[in-house]
Amino acid sequence: MLPATVLTFNLPVDVHARMRGLAAALGIRVKAVPPESFATPLGAMLGIPAAPADAPAEAGGFSDPMLLMCNLNEAQFNRFLQMLRGPGLPRIPLKAVLTPHNVGWNALQLHDELAREHEAMGKKH
Q: Total domain count for the chain?
């Protein structure tokens, strides 16, 4: 079984380090994904063997921060989300959990989906 892991995208080094320190107390590993790996399937980033690729690798990128959580139990998940609202960490609206549906996506596809969802939720309010 994979360890509880959070992949971070586009976090400033100091924010990533602070998040990593706080998450370690919860037994969660935090790993920064460099922009050159954004086209890699999410499952492959986490070491999931034979993670399917849903789409060919594409060029491009994004600059806003994003988080992907994998294998957090309910207590870790709730405490981690609480921790994100604490002092010293910026608001990160684009967050997802790894699922069988998105395991073959890459970070670019996940970002596009989360951005669409975030925009749609903003229009409802």
A: 1
Q: What is the pLDDT of residue 58?
A: 60
Full domain range(s) for residue 13:
5-124
Query: What is the spatial distance between Cα 71 and Cα 48, in angstroms, rounded to a whole number?
Result: 12
- What is the pLDDT confidence band of residue 53, given thresholds at 50, 70 and 90? low
Whole-angstrom Cα distance, residue 82 to residue 50? 33
C-alpha distances in Å from residue 31, one per residue of 39, 56, 83, 116 = 16, 24, 17, 25
Reported as half-sphere exposure (CB side, CA atoms, 13 A), residue 84 has a value of: 19
State both tokens at 84. 């994100």
Alpha carbons 6 and 46: distance in angstroms, whole number:
9
